[in-house]
Amino acid sequence: MELFKLLLLVISLVAFLSAPIAALERGGKLGSKSSGLLEIDSTIFSRHLLNDSQPQIVESLSDGYMSNAALEEAISEIGQRCGHICNIYSIGKSVKGFPLLVIEISDKPGQEEAEPAFKFIGNVHGDEPVGREVLVRLANWLCNNYMKDPLATLIVNNVHLHILPSMNPDGFDMRRRGNANNVDLNRDFPDQFYPLNDGLTQRQPETKAIIKWVEGRQFTASASLHGGALVANYPWDGAQDGSSRKEYFACPDDKTFRYMASVYSRSHYNMSLSKEFEGGIVNGALWYPIYGGMQDWNYINGGCFELTLEISDEKWPKADELPTLFEYNRISMLNLVASLVKAGIHGRIFASNNGGPLPASVMIKGSDYGVNASRIFGDFHRMLAPHESYEVAASMSGFKSKTTKIFLEDKAVNLDFVLDPEENQEQFNRFDHNKSGFLSMYLDYFPIIFLISVLFLCFLLKRKAIFKFLKQRQPQAQKSPTLAV
């Protein structure tokens, strides 16, 4: 009997240790969150996915929403009608090959400028389509109101806005949360608190496209649009111990994220009036922890301050509610993008020896997450909460770092840095400059040097010919007569 109890205890222990790690999922109405699982396989790390536990979207509910083909046509139409401020491009394809199309809006679309960049991403979850509809309406509104509305004009002239209406077109088409491989894309990113995600080789093409997109551009801030709640969510999304325990876990830029979330919430029709979330904002780990989320990855790896915006209590509301939902969120979206110009610090970094721009790093004391200046213009843009003092440092290999203190009020601060080369670097630059100067001078005078060389060679050849001719014309000497003996 004792042996039997011991055997049961061992079996229970093994079952407990091999149980999958549950991560609560966002979705559904408030208070009705489904769960997704991450499981450790005995041979390889793999993702264990549950079928979506949410009710299947009935076809009648889809009436009035754009199909994927209609979405592509709408994006193309915006590009044609608003080509003076729009650039349409693709960052990749979904599992089923649907293009992930982006609408770039700027007074100089498709060109590099010393301006901050913002991105909106909609339809991360296939069964949360409000974002894709709202974002297409936002692009149309900006196009129609440029040079008419002050806020629209400010954004177009001073920000590069990138809008990806649908990150998960396959999930939308299949009326489910995950993509065509049934993967929750908002659990598919590398995670600082959950190394298991870093070892996954089967990362989804939609996730890879976002990662490549962020790594290839310098986004200052961004937001993804979801449905099923009404709140602005900010990092961290998980806890350091990787647990599912709900508790506030602040990132180093907590004040800045709270400020950004409040900009959205207070501009919204009723988000800030929430009885569940104070001020209509919430720390992700306090709401419920997730791992592999997109917003934390953006902040850590891209220096991009991202929010997760839940913009509709219903995941899939009736289509006739979409115009109202857009109006409820329009000013919030515009104010959030405009905050890139109205808040934070902006500047450029130059080298003192030649005045050239430097892609230096800008760090804030107390935060491990900095931003890099661009290689072309040396410009940087860093979100910061107002009414705070900051110590800002600019540094780059081969140059002496510089630090300054500022107090940020209600307006953005322009802050330029001029970095001095280190002594050994300065000597190298001087030698390199001298070498470059000699080479430049040689190239400038090359035609003259070449002509003189040719003339000198001709002179030598001609001289040799004349000498040979004179030698041939000289009379031969008479032979001495032989004397008879």
TrEMBL record:
Residue stretches making up the Peptidase M14 domain: 64-340
Annotated GO biological process: peptide metabolic process; protein processing
Record-annotated membrane-spanning stretches: 442-461
Gene3D superfamilies in the cross-refs: Carboxypeptidase-like, regulatory domain, Zn peptidases
Cofactor requirement: Zn(2+)
Keywords from the UniProt entry: Carboxypeptidase, Glycoprotein, Hydrolase, Membrane, Metal-binding, Protease, Signal, Transmembrane, Transmembrane helix, Zinc
Active site: 310 (proton donor/acceptor)
GO cellular component, one term: extracellular space
Signal peptide: 1-23
Classification via InterPro entries: CarboxyPept-like_regulatory, CARBOXYPEPT_ZN_1, CARBOXYPEPT_ZN_2, Peptidase_M14, Peptidase_M14_domain
Stated family: Belongs to the peptidase M14 family.
Protein name: Peptidase M14 domain-containing protein
